[in-house]
Amino acid sequence: MLLWPDCISCILKMSLEVGRLAIKEESQIKDFMSAVLKLSPLCGNNWQIIAGEVVRDVWYILTEITGKEDPMKEIKVDLNNRALQIYPSAKELVSKSLDPFITALKFSIAGNALDIMVGIGDNAAEQLIPELEEFMINKENIEVFRKRLSRTRRLVYFTDNCGEIVFDRLFLEVISRMYDLDITIVTRTLPVLNDATLQNALSAGLGEIAEVVENGIQEPLAGTILAKVSPQVRSLVERADLLISKGGANYDCLTEEPTVAGKTTYLLHGKCYPYCFENNVPMGTLIIRNS
Q: Which of 267, 191, 226, 173 is nearest to 50 (CA)?
């Protein structure tokens, strides 16, 4: 999915919020936002670009001003820790559910709401359990997804945000018991926003379920552009029976990749108009797109 007009205000809002988290001096925040506002896509001069590429350029400005490779490092650790605190309760809820697959799937997709792009409340992770039943989800798409998994041997799972990955772990634990899967989990290589890196994923326990690898992209890209991934990940994608793409950034990138059409299931929270419009669902829906 290429840039929509809605993406401009979203990226600008995110930039200011991240800037306030990472930069202490008000004069530097003004310098940061002045530089961000000069980016061509944010002036409406380049629509043939993916939002994650614009976020990458915002991140370059932020790291230059702060002098830090990962200005969100402590926040990402906190997001994982908050999610890990409720993980036992979530796991118990899944185990007692009439359909553990659907309950774990809901946790995984709802966890995608833990995203700096749309803001993260102090108790966002804690609210997932009481709010879980309220989320809408398409049951027909769930059944298509189940059938895909039943035919799958080699699965590649593209992760998105910290905090969210704890609930990915819960979902992967369930499907690894239900299906005979060879699972590889893929993270970002370089830090960007609150996206999960290899170390973040391992600290959330994903290494206990499957092999975890970096995507090999040597730039702070929010998302996964296959032309930029490592040869290892490219080979994994080519050989995979099914790809699971988590979150909006991966959705933006991979829906532009014709080579993965027909074997990709996208799981994301409907937190903005473009995602909901493209998938014909109301705002706040848990989106499953089998394409």
A: 226
